[in-house]
Amino acid sequence: MHIPFNKFYLIGKEETYFSQALKESKITGGGKFSNQSVQFLCSRYGFNNLHLTTSCTAALETAALLLDIQAGDEIIVPSYTFVSTVNAFALRGAKLVFADSGKDNPNMDAAGIEQLITSRTKAIIPVHYGGVACDMDIISGLAQKHNLTVVEDAAHSIDAWYNNRPLGSLGDMAAFSFHETKNITCGEGGALVLNNTFFAERAEIVLDKGTNRKAFAEGKTDKYEWVGLGSSYRMAEPTAAFLLAQLEALDTVQKIRKEFWNNYYSALTDTGLQDFFSLPVVPQYAKHNASVFYLVCSSRTLRDKLITGLAVAGIAAAFHYQPLHLSPFYTAMQQKPVVLPHSEKFGNCLLRLPLHANLRTDDVKYVTDQIIKILN
Ligand SMILES: *Cc1c(COP(=O)(O)O)cnc(C)c1O
Predict the structure, then answer these.
(1) Which of 206, 213, 226, 357 has its CB surrounded by the most CB atoms within 10 Å?
(2) Could you read off the pLDDT of 119-148 as tens digits, one per residue?
(3) pTM to 2 decimal places
(4) Residue whose CA is closest, atom 14 of ligand 1?
């Protein structure tokens, strides 16, 4: 028995679309497959302005460039997240202010954010962990009150919702990931959503490597020049062709993933093992997308024992983020240590179970049986 933690899922049309893309006269971005992928996402989620990028990291870096961060500007970010959430802004010189996770949810604790806001705060970067929405009413309210920008790190959040609104539509900007480990993939890829026209206009320049190429192409200027900071972040056409095939199969993939997520949840409910682990808590306002299934173990020792026990049974289970406020790079820059107990708890105790569309129902049952067996 071998159950991999993740395996990318091919739905069928990837090869066909990919080879069609190779027959086009251009394979840079912005061709017909890129346009169809953009169209798909915009019409399904009501986005007005979306750009495909080479990764979610690239989308976040674009967002950071658009924020026009100056030395001393602060951003509020969760500590319990992937490094790209903060690297993108640290690259521009932002000072990182870490928010703790909630008590029973890895997302940043919205109630603790206001005390972190200073006159230098520029933006709040909520990460919807596992596609479970952050408390966006509180976060948007604070942003409005203090005149801050909100950038959603929606890397996990395709087809996930906050009340009736899709994640990615709630901040001024949002970044999605189509990395191999996410629900929908094209190998490496991402998308930047711009919900604020101020950023939407400037994004054309950043994404055109700091030039006014778009204005030139539209005949609005007679020269094509360097007009600001920018970089090369656009997704190429063959990748977009692969992505389109995956997007067209989104409902199929989501149905499978949700079924497995629900199977995990119900098999691990009422096991009499509540002293050893707790199950994900999904707030009322969130409709998640089965991006991650996790347990929160009662201790790090128990979490590590489960990882080892499951490995012996042929199951690859995994911990997740190491809190960034404890990372070597951050602690080396800091004078005094930061203590964020909930983030640290998730760092020590969170265990992810295999969740991908290649699993079979029996695999999920085997995993939950093994967990129960190990803990008994
Ligand atoms: C995966 C991930 C990213 C980075 O996505 P890439 O597409 O690999 O750049 C950023 N933030 C979070 C929370 C992620 O999980």
Answers:
(1) 206
(2) 999 999 999 999 999 999 999 999 999 999
(3) 0.97
(4) 155
